[in-house]
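Consider the tokenized backbone below.
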């Protein structure tokens, strides 16, 4: 059993919390309002979930921290609270919502690399960003199941990725390791691996076929 801190309790955060509790893990939830509004979800999740007043309170004893908040809010995270932690970045870049971020517009970096830069003491792994939130709790299956759904991940820390892979397996998904954080663009929005149900072989093909907008041929 692991302790999973979830920062943000929107569509993705709440679904990850449900998955974690169902898999037998403990969950600590934090939001931008000091825990206000978390009561209904905590009541639904039961004894293995609790709210936290601050991000630092949520992360203190966590084995894994899931950042499930808009990427433009990453700068508000207290870096000291993430020292030595494994952090899953679930974010996607939507300029109309997040505002334009030049280094994402020109594809010189990724959201997870930005988060890693902001949390230098953490080990960031990109995952859980390329699946429709509602499908997180409806498309998992036991290990070894035929056509088991696969999720992608990327990260620079091999040990951190091993922990995340084990966690995602407990959630009901196979995992395809794309490589370092810099390869996390391969399963960002509008690319072949995004928001589609694929098994591990299909996921590898989709990831291999991804092309950055900047690399598309120009007429």
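A designed sequence for it:
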């Amino acid at each position: 059993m692991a302790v999973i801190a979830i920062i943000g309790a929107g569509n993705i955060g709440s679904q990850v919390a449900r998955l974690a509790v169902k898999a037998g893990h403990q969950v600590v939830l934090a939001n931008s309002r000091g825990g206000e509004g978390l009561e209904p979800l905590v009541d639904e999740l039961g004894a293995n979930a609790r709210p936290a007043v601050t991000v630092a309170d949520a992360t203190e004893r966590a084995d894994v921290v899931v950042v499930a908040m808009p990427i433009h809010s990453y700068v508000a995270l207290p870096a000291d609270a993430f020292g030595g932690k494994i952090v899953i970045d679930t974010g996607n870049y939507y300029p109309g919502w997040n505002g334009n971020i030049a280094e994402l517009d020109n594809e010189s970096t990724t959201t997870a690399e930005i988060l890693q830069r902001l949390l230098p003491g953490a080990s960031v792994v990109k995952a859980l960003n390329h699946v429709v939130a509602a499908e997180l709790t409806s498309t998992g299956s036991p290990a070894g199941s035929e056509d088991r759904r696969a999720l992608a991940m990327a990260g620079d820390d091999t040990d951190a990725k091993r922990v995340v892979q084990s966690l995602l397996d407990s959630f009901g998904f196979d995992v395809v390791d794309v490589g370092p954080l810099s390869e996390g663009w391969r399963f960002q929005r509008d690319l072949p691996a995004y928001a589609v149900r694929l098994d591990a072989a299909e996921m590898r093909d989709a990831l291999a076929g991804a092309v950055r907008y900047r690399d598309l041929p120009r007429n």
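The chain has one domain: 3-215.
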